[in-house]
Amino acid sequence: MLVDNYNRHIHYLRLSVTDRCDLRCTYCLPEQYSDFEEPSNWLSFDEIEELIRAFASVGVAKIRITGGEPLTRKNIDQLIPRLARINGIDDLSMSTNATRLDKLAAPLADAGISRINVSLDTLKPQRFKDITKGKLDKVITGLMAAKAAKLHPIKINMVVMKGVNDDEAEDMVDFCMEHNFTLRFIETMPVGDTGRSAFDQYINLDEIKRRLSSKYELLPAHLGRGMQGAGPAKYWQIAGSDTTIGFITPISQHFCETCNRVRLSADGVLHMCLGQEHSFDFKPLLQANASQAELQDAIRHAINLKPERHEFTEKPDQVIRFMAKTGG
Question: How far is CA 100 from the centre of its chain?
Fold first, then answer.
Protein backbone atom coordinates (compact mmCIF):
# COMPACT_ATOMS: atom_id res chain seq x y z
CA MET A 1 0.00 0.00 0.00
CA LEU A 2 1.05 3.55 -0.76
CA VAL A 3 0.28 5.66 2.30
CA ASP A 4 1.16 9.34 2.80
CA ASN A 5 2.19 11.16 5.96
CA TYR A 6 -1.47 11.70 6.91
CA ASN A 7 -2.36 8.00 6.69
CA ARG A 8 -4.24 8.37 3.40
CA HIS A 9 -4.13 5.39 1.05
CA ILE A 10 -3.04 6.75 -2.36
CA HIS A 11 -4.27 4.38 -5.04
CA TYR A 12 -5.53 6.69 -7.80
CA LEU A 13 -3.40 8.42 -10.47
CA ARG A 14 -4.69 10.92 -12.98
CA LEU A 15 -2.39 10.56 -15.97
CA SER A 16 -2.19 13.50 -18.36
CA VAL A 17 -0.99 12.60 -21.85
CA THR A 18 -1.11 16.16 -23.23
CA ASP A 19 -1.67 19.69 -21.97
CA ARG A 20 -3.36 20.69 -25.24
CA CYS A 21 -7.08 20.91 -25.79
CA ASP A 22 -9.37 21.60 -28.73
CA LEU A 23 -11.70 23.68 -26.53
CA ARG A 24 -11.09 26.82 -24.47
CA CYS A 25 -13.32 26.60 -21.41
CA THR A 26 -13.42 29.97 -19.69
CA TYR A 27 -12.42 28.55 -16.28
CA CYS A 28 -9.55 26.46 -17.65
CA LEU A 29 -7.60 28.02 -20.55
CA PRO A 30 -7.52 31.62 -21.82
CA GLU A 31 -8.79 31.86 -25.39
CA GLN A 32 -5.43 33.05 -26.77
CA TYR A 33 -3.27 30.81 -24.57
CA SER A 34 -0.42 29.18 -26.50
CA ASP A 35 2.26 28.40 -23.90
CA PHE A 36 1.90 24.64 -24.23
CA GLU A 37 4.63 22.08 -23.73
CA GLU A 38 6.34 21.02 -26.93
CA PRO A 39 5.30 17.45 -27.79
CA SER A 40 8.96 16.49 -27.58
CA ASN A 41 8.78 17.27 -23.83
CA TRP A 42 5.85 14.95 -23.22
CA LEU A 43 6.58 11.57 -21.75
CA SER A 44 6.77 8.94 -24.48
CA PHE A 45 4.45 5.94 -24.38
CA ASP A 46 7.42 3.79 -23.33
CA GLU A 47 8.20 6.16 -20.44
CA ILE A 48 4.56 6.29 -19.39
CA GLU A 49 4.29 2.50 -19.37
CA GLU A 50 7.49 2.13 -17.34
CA LEU A 51 6.35 4.67 -14.76
CA ILE A 52 2.84 3.24 -14.48
CA ARG A 53 4.37 -0.19 -13.84
CA ALA A 54 6.19 1.33 -10.89
CA PHE A 55 3.04 3.02 -9.59
CA ALA A 56 1.10 -0.23 -9.89
CA SER A 57 3.80 -2.14 -8.03
CA VAL A 58 3.49 0.14 -4.98
CA GLY A 59 -0.31 0.05 -4.82
CA VAL A 60 -1.86 2.38 -7.40
CA ALA A 61 -4.74 0.45 -8.98
CA LYS A 62 -6.82 3.14 -10.67
CA ILE A 63 -5.63 5.18 -13.66
CA ARG A 64 -7.64 7.94 -15.30
CA ILE A 65 -6.21 9.24 -18.58
CA THR A 66 -6.65 13.00 -18.83
CA GLY A 67 -5.28 16.11 -20.51
CA GLY A 68 -5.82 18.81 -21.74
CA GLU A 69 -7.92 16.72 -24.03
CA PRO A 70 -6.39 13.22 -24.14
CA LEU A 71 -7.94 12.35 -27.48
CA THR A 72 -5.81 15.01 -29.17
CA ARG A 73 -2.72 12.88 -28.39
CA LYS A 74 -1.76 11.00 -31.54
CA ASN A 75 -2.22 7.21 -31.34
CA ILE A 76 -3.67 7.40 -27.83
CA ASP A 77 -5.59 4.18 -28.52
CA GLN A 78 -2.21 2.40 -28.81
CA LEU A 79 -1.20 3.41 -25.28
CA ILE A 80 -4.38 2.15 -23.62
CA PRO A 81 -3.89 -1.62 -24.11
CA ARG A 82 -0.32 -1.29 -22.86
CA LEU A 83 -1.61 0.19 -19.61
CA ALA A 84 -4.53 -2.23 -19.38
CA ARG A 85 -2.10 -5.17 -19.39
CA ILE A 86 -0.08 -3.90 -16.41
CA ASN A 87 -0.46 -6.17 -13.41
CA GLY A 88 -2.26 -4.38 -10.59
CA ILE A 89 -4.19 -1.87 -12.70
CA ASP A 90 -7.82 -2.85 -12.27
CA ASP A 91 -9.56 0.37 -13.35
CA LEU A 92 -8.61 2.26 -16.52
CA SER A 93 -10.84 5.20 -17.41
CA MET A 94 -10.67 8.51 -19.26
CA SER A 95 -11.82 12.11 -18.90
CA THR A 96 -12.67 13.78 -22.21
CA ASN A 97 -14.66 16.61 -23.72
CA ALA A 98 -16.17 14.07 -26.18
CA THR A 99 -15.54 16.16 -29.31
CA ARG A 100 -13.66 13.23 -30.90
CA LEU A 101 -15.62 10.33 -29.49
CA ASP A 102 -17.70 9.92 -32.63
CA LYS A 103 -14.74 8.12 -34.22
CA LEU A 104 -12.86 6.96 -31.14
CA ALA A 105 -15.47 5.63 -28.70
CA ALA A 106 -15.48 2.10 -30.12
CA PRO A 107 -11.67 1.87 -30.47
CA LEU A 108 -11.29 3.10 -26.88
CA ALA A 109 -13.68 0.46 -25.61
CA ASP A 110 -11.87 -2.23 -27.58
CA ALA A 111 -8.49 -1.00 -26.28
CA GLY A 112 -9.46 -1.32 -22.63
CA ILE A 113 -11.19 1.88 -21.45
CA SER A 114 -14.02 0.77 -19.20
CA ARG A 115 -15.72 4.08 -18.47
CA ILE A 116 -15.49 7.78 -19.27
CA ASN A 117 -16.19 11.15 -17.71
CA VAL A 118 -17.33 13.87 -20.09
CA SER A 119 -17.17 17.60 -19.39
CA LEU A 120 -20.47 19.20 -20.33
CA ASP A 121 -21.58 22.44 -18.68
CA THR A 122 -24.61 23.33 -20.79
CA LEU A 123 -27.14 21.91 -23.24
CA LYS A 124 -27.60 25.24 -25.04
CA PRO A 125 -25.52 25.56 -28.25
CA GLN A 126 -24.78 29.28 -28.00
CA ARG A 127 -24.00 29.07 -24.30
CA PHE A 128 -21.71 26.11 -25.01
CA LYS A 129 -19.89 28.22 -27.60
CA ASP A 130 -19.59 31.10 -25.13
CA ILE A 131 -18.09 28.83 -22.46
CA THR A 132 -15.86 26.61 -24.63
CA LYS A 133 -15.55 28.25 -28.07
CA GLY A 134 -16.68 24.88 -29.43
CA LYS A 135 -19.75 23.21 -30.93
CA LEU A 136 -22.23 21.39 -28.72
CA ASP A 137 -23.40 19.03 -31.47
CA LYS A 138 -19.94 17.42 -31.66
CA VAL A 139 -20.12 16.59 -27.95
CA ILE A 140 -23.65 15.18 -28.16
CA THR A 141 -22.65 13.07 -31.17
CA GLY A 142 -19.63 11.83 -29.25
CA LEU A 143 -21.75 10.95 -26.22
CA MET A 144 -24.16 8.93 -28.34
CA ALA A 145 -21.20 7.09 -29.90
CA ALA A 146 -19.89 6.26 -26.41
CA LYS A 147 -23.33 5.00 -25.43
CA ALA A 148 -23.47 2.84 -28.57
CA ALA A 149 -19.99 1.47 -27.76
CA LYS A 150 -21.40 0.38 -24.39
CA LEU A 151 -18.95 2.40 -22.32
CA HIS A 152 -20.46 2.38 -18.85
CA PRO A 153 -20.87 4.29 -16.72
CA ILE A 154 -20.75 7.51 -18.71
CA LYS A 155 -20.46 10.34 -16.20
CA ILE A 156 -21.28 13.92 -17.11
CA ASN A 157 -19.27 16.56 -15.24
CA MET A 158 -21.00 19.92 -15.01
CA VAL A 159 -19.12 22.85 -13.49
CA VAL A 160 -21.89 25.00 -12.06
CA MET A 161 -21.35 28.74 -12.47
CA LYS A 162 -23.65 31.35 -10.97
CA GLY A 163 -25.31 33.48 -13.61
CA VAL A 164 -23.81 31.36 -16.38
CA ASN A 165 -25.39 27.90 -16.31
CA ASP A 166 -26.86 27.35 -12.84
CA ASP A 167 -30.34 27.64 -14.36
CA GLU A 168 -29.75 24.39 -16.29
CA ALA A 169 -29.31 21.99 -13.37
CA GLU A 170 -32.77 20.44 -13.81
CA ASP A 171 -32.38 20.22 -17.59
CA MET A 172 -29.08 18.38 -17.18
CA VAL A 173 -30.67 15.94 -14.72
CA ASP A 174 -33.46 15.21 -17.21
CA PHE A 175 -30.94 14.73 -20.04
CA CYS A 176 -28.95 12.24 -17.96
CA MET A 177 -32.11 10.40 -16.91
CA GLU A 178 -33.09 10.06 -20.58
CA HIS A 179 -29.73 8.53 -21.55
CA ASN A 180 -28.85 6.65 -18.35
CA PHE A 181 -25.82 8.85 -17.68
CA THR A 182 -24.49 9.62 -14.22
CA LEU A 183 -24.35 13.35 -13.47
CA ARG A 184 -21.83 15.11 -11.23
CA PHE A 185 -22.11 18.78 -10.31
CA ILE A 186 -18.76 20.44 -9.54
CA GLU A 187 -18.00 23.69 -7.73
CA THR A 188 -15.78 26.20 -9.51
CA MET A 189 -12.16 26.01 -8.30
CA PRO A 190 -9.71 28.95 -8.38
CA VAL A 191 -6.92 27.10 -10.22
CA GLY A 192 -4.77 29.37 -12.44
CA ASP A 193 -5.63 32.88 -13.56
CA THR A 194 -8.72 31.78 -15.45
CA GLY A 195 -9.95 29.72 -12.51
CA ARG A 196 -9.53 32.65 -10.14
CA SER A 197 -11.46 34.89 -12.54
CA ALA A 198 -14.24 32.31 -12.83
CA PHE A 199 -14.41 32.08 -9.04
CA ASP A 200 -16.56 35.21 -9.16
CA GLN A 201 -19.24 32.83 -10.49
CA TYR A 202 -18.86 30.38 -7.61
CA ILE A 203 -22.04 28.85 -6.22
CA ASN A 204 -22.30 26.57 -3.20
CA LEU A 205 -23.71 23.26 -4.44
CA ASP A 206 -25.93 23.03 -1.38
CA GLU A 207 -28.11 25.55 -3.20
CA ILE A 208 -28.36 23.29 -6.23
CA LYS A 209 -29.10 20.23 -4.11
CA ARG A 210 -31.89 22.03 -2.26
CA ARG A 211 -33.39 23.15 -5.55
CA LEU A 212 -33.25 19.67 -7.06
CA SER A 213 -34.78 18.17 -3.92
CA SER A 214 -37.91 20.21 -4.55
CA LYS A 215 -38.39 18.52 -7.95
CA TYR A 216 -36.90 15.06 -7.43
CA GLU A 217 -36.85 12.71 -4.46
CA LEU A 218 -33.15 12.16 -3.72
CA LEU A 219 -32.17 8.98 -1.91
CA PRO A 220 -28.69 8.02 -0.65
CA ALA A 221 -27.12 6.03 -3.49
CA HIS A 222 -25.72 2.54 -3.06
CA LEU A 223 -23.41 2.19 -6.02
CA GLY A 224 -21.80 -0.90 -7.46
CA ARG A 225 -18.25 -1.38 -8.72
CA GLY A 226 -17.27 1.19 -11.31
CA MET A 227 -20.11 3.53 -10.43
CA GLN A 228 -18.69 5.05 -7.25
CA GLY A 229 -15.28 5.52 -8.85
CA ALA A 230 -12.33 6.67 -6.79
CA GLY A 231 -13.30 10.29 -6.47
CA PRO A 232 -14.82 12.69 -3.94
CA ALA A 233 -18.39 12.90 -5.25
CA LYS A 234 -21.25 12.30 -2.82
CA TYR A 235 -23.96 10.47 -4.74
CA TRP A 236 -27.75 10.45 -4.57
CA GLN A 237 -30.23 8.38 -6.53
CA ILE A 238 -33.35 9.87 -8.06
CA ALA A 239 -36.27 7.85 -6.70
CA GLY A 240 -38.03 5.71 -9.29
CA SER A 241 -35.05 5.74 -11.67
CA ASP A 242 -31.59 4.29 -12.13
CA THR A 243 -30.08 7.77 -12.37
CA THR A 244 -27.55 8.96 -9.82
CA ILE A 245 -26.27 12.48 -9.32
CA GLY A 246 -23.14 13.47 -7.45
CA PHE A 247 -21.87 16.65 -5.85
CA ILE A 248 -18.16 17.52 -5.80
CA THR A 249 -17.52 20.31 -3.31
CA PRO A 250 -13.83 21.26 -3.03
CA ILE A 251 -14.70 24.69 -1.66
CA SER A 252 -17.81 24.42 0.50
CA GLN A 253 -17.01 20.97 1.95
CA HIS A 254 -13.43 20.01 1.22
CA PHE A 255 -12.58 16.32 1.18
CA CYS A 256 -8.85 16.53 1.85
CA GLU A 257 -8.88 14.03 4.71
CA THR A 258 -9.90 11.28 2.27
CA CYS A 259 -7.94 12.42 -0.80
CA ASN A 260 -6.58 9.34 -2.53
CA ARG A 261 -5.06 10.76 -5.71
CA VAL A 262 -2.11 12.44 -7.34
CA ARG A 263 -1.74 13.91 -10.83
CA LEU A 264 1.02 13.27 -13.38
CA SER A 265 1.40 16.01 -15.96
CA ALA A 266 2.26 15.28 -19.59
CA ASP A 267 5.89 16.29 -19.02
CA GLY A 268 6.38 13.88 -16.12
CA VAL A 269 5.82 16.13 -13.10
CA LEU A 270 3.77 14.57 -10.31
CA HIS A 271 1.49 17.11 -8.61
CA MET A 272 0.31 16.15 -5.14
CA CYS A 273 -2.57 18.62 -4.85
CA LEU A 274 -4.51 20.99 -7.11
CA GLY A 275 -4.45 23.66 -4.44
CA GLN A 276 -0.76 23.47 -3.53
CA GLU A 277 2.58 23.53 -5.35
CA HIS A 278 4.18 20.32 -4.03
CA SER A 279 5.53 18.32 -6.96
CA PHE A 280 8.18 15.84 -8.10
CA ASP A 281 9.73 15.56 -11.57
CA PHE A 282 10.09 11.97 -12.80
CA LYS A 283 11.44 12.81 -16.23
CA PRO A 284 15.15 12.90 -15.26
CA LEU A 285 14.84 9.44 -13.73
CA LEU A 286 13.10 8.06 -16.79
CA GLN A 287 15.64 9.60 -19.14
CA ALA A 288 18.41 8.03 -17.05
CA ASN A 289 16.75 4.61 -17.44
CA ALA A 290 16.10 4.30 -13.72
CA SER A 291 15.28 0.83 -12.48
CA GLN A 292 11.84 -0.13 -11.22
CA ALA A 293 13.23 -0.12 -7.67
CA GLU A 294 14.53 3.43 -8.12
CA LEU A 295 11.19 4.58 -9.52
CA GLN A 296 9.34 2.94 -6.64
CA ASP A 297 11.57 4.72 -4.10
CA ALA A 298 10.98 8.03 -5.89
CA ILE A 299 7.22 7.49 -5.83
CA ARG A 300 7.25 6.84 -2.08
CA HIS A 301 9.36 9.98 -1.56
CA ALA A 302 6.99 12.04 -3.73
CA ILE A 303 3.89 10.82 -1.89
CA ASN A 304 5.42 12.00 1.38
CA LEU A 305 5.36 15.52 -0.09
CA LYS A 306 1.57 15.45 -0.35
CA PRO A 307 0.16 18.25 1.85
CA GLU A 308 -2.56 17.78 4.42
CA ARG A 309 -5.06 19.93 2.52
CA HIS A 310 -5.52 22.37 -0.32
CA GLU A 311 -5.52 26.11 0.23
CA PHE A 312 -7.69 27.51 -2.54
CA THR A 313 -9.22 30.21 -0.39
CA GLU A 314 -6.46 30.78 2.12
CA LYS A 315 -3.67 31.48 -0.39
CA PRO A 316 -5.29 32.22 -3.75
CA ASP A 317 -2.10 33.65 -5.26
CA GLN A 318 -0.19 30.47 -4.57
CA VAL A 319 -1.81 28.36 -7.29
CA ILE A 320 -0.51 29.61 -10.62
CA ARG A 321 -0.97 26.58 -12.87
CA PHE A 322 -3.77 26.26 -15.38
CA MET A 323 -5.90 23.16 -14.88
CA ALA A 324 -4.82 21.78 -18.27
CA LYS A 325 -1.16 22.00 -17.24
CA THR A 326 -1.76 20.00 -14.06
CA GLY A 327 -3.72 17.13 -15.53
CA GLY A 328 -7.39 17.82 -14.87
Answer: 17
Residue 164 near residue 137, CB atoms below 8 Å: no
Specify whether the CB–CB gap between 256 and 308 falls below 8 A: yes
Burial call 114-149: b when 16+ CB within 10 Å, e when fewer: bbbbbbbbbbeeebbeebbebebebbbbbbebbbeb
Position 171, amino acid: D
Q: Are 325 and 268 in contact (CB under 8 A)?
A: no
Helix (H, G, I), strand (E, B) or coil at 267: coil
Can you tell me the distance from the alpha carbon of 144 to that of 179, in angstroms, rounded to the nearest whole number?
A: 9
Which residues on adjacent β-strands are paired with residue 246? 184, 235
**Residues of the chain with pLDDT > 90: what percent?**
75
Q: What is the rounded CA–CA span in Å between residue 18 and residue 29? A: 14
Report the length, in residues, of the chain: 328
Angular region, 75: left φ>0, alpha ψ -120 to 50, beta rest: left
Flag whether pLDDT at 71 surpasses 70.
yes
Which residues partner with 50 through β-bridges? none
Residue 227 has pLDDT above 90, yes or no: no
Sign of the C-alpha dihedral computed for residues 65, 66, 70 and 71 taken in this order = positive
Residue type, 132: T
